[in-house]
């Protein structure tokens, strides 16, 4: 399995990487919130160990942004000892489990195993709309079972549309979720991404609702 470890404290980060690697996983590590958000967004992980107290962007915000963009991988948060409010905020933001510091590495590994087991067991990370399917955990999209070659932006855009298929999503909504910390985001670039995505999807999958935005529909049901 592929695990992302996010911890700013170097000694603990190295311990985590070593222990999780020794447990047979492939591990990527990030030392701050911006890097963590980027990795979790652009790449696919089977689980994430996420410290909440991070430089640049705190762990709660990182998690909220992943979830808002449709990233459903299991996340285990590391909280400060006795900080019950952190646990509550973390679970509200979409964490699957938490562990208070300091912890025993064995307990962390056991919880990680449980998370991976649960994720594998219910495995409903597949979203469908007509012939289009995406696997949110693997970050893969297919049409009629054939893999789609998508850039990470195109994949994110498709995830947003799939998550709320049939609903009209405004350009502003889409650009806010695609570029969470770009103050100069320009909703016109969404048009460019929509045009590229359209070329890769069955005809009529993405409807333009004039003045409002875009909607993903089951291509077979429409005449467009
Ligand atoms: Ca920290």
Task: Lay out the secondary structure.
Elements (H helix, E strand, L loop, with lengths): L1 E5 L3 H13 L3 E5 L2 H10 L4 E5 L7 H10 L6 E5 L4 H9 L4 E4 L4 H18 L3 E4 L2 E4 L4 E4 L2 E2 L4 H12 L7 H8 L9 H13 L5 E4 L3 E4 L8
Parallel strand pairs: 1-2, 1-3, 3-4, 4-5
Antiparallel strand pairs: 6-7, 7-8, 8-9, 10-11
Helix pairs in contact: 2-3, 6-8
The structure holds calcium ion.
Observed structural traits:
about 220 residues, alpha/beta, Rossmann fold, Arc Repressor Mutant, subunit A, 2 domains, binds calcium ion
Folded structure, characterized:
The protein has two domains: 2-119, 3-Layer(aba) Sandwich (Rossmann fold); 126-221, Orthogonal Bundle (Arc Repressor Mutant, subunit A). The chain is built from eight helices and eleven strands. It is of the alpha/beta class and 224 residues long. It is elongated, with a radius of gyration of 19 Å. It is 42% helix and 21% strand. The site of calcium ion has 5 residues, from loops.
């Amino acid at each position: 399995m592929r695990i992302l470890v996010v911890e700013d404290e170097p000694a603990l980060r190295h311990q985590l990487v070593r222990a999780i690697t020794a447990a047979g996983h492939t591990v990527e590590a990030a030392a701050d919130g911006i890097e963590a958000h980027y990795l979790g967004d652009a790449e696919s992980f089977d689980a994430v160990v996420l410290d909440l107290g991070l430089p640049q962007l705190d762990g709660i915000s990182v998690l909220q942004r992943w979830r808002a963009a449709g990233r459903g991988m299991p996340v285990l948060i590391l909280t400060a000892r006795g900080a019950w409010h952190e646990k509550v905020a973390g679970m509200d933001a979409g964490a699957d489990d938490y562990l208070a510091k300091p912890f025993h590495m064995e307990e962390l590994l056991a919880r990680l195993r449980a998370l991976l087991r649960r994720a594998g067991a219910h495995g409903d990370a597949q979203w469908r709309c007509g012939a289009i399917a995406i696997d949110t955990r693997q970050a893969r999209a297919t049409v009629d079972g054939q893999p789609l070659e998508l850039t990470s932006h195109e994949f994110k855009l498709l995830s947003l549309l799939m998550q709320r298929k049939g609903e009209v999503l405004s350009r502003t909504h889409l650009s806010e979720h695609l570029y969470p910390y770009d103050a100069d985001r320009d909703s016109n670039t969404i048009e460019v991404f929509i045009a590229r995505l359209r070329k890769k999807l069955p005809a009529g999958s993405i409807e333009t609702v004039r003045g409002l935005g875009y909607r993903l529909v089951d291509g077979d049901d429409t005449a467009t």
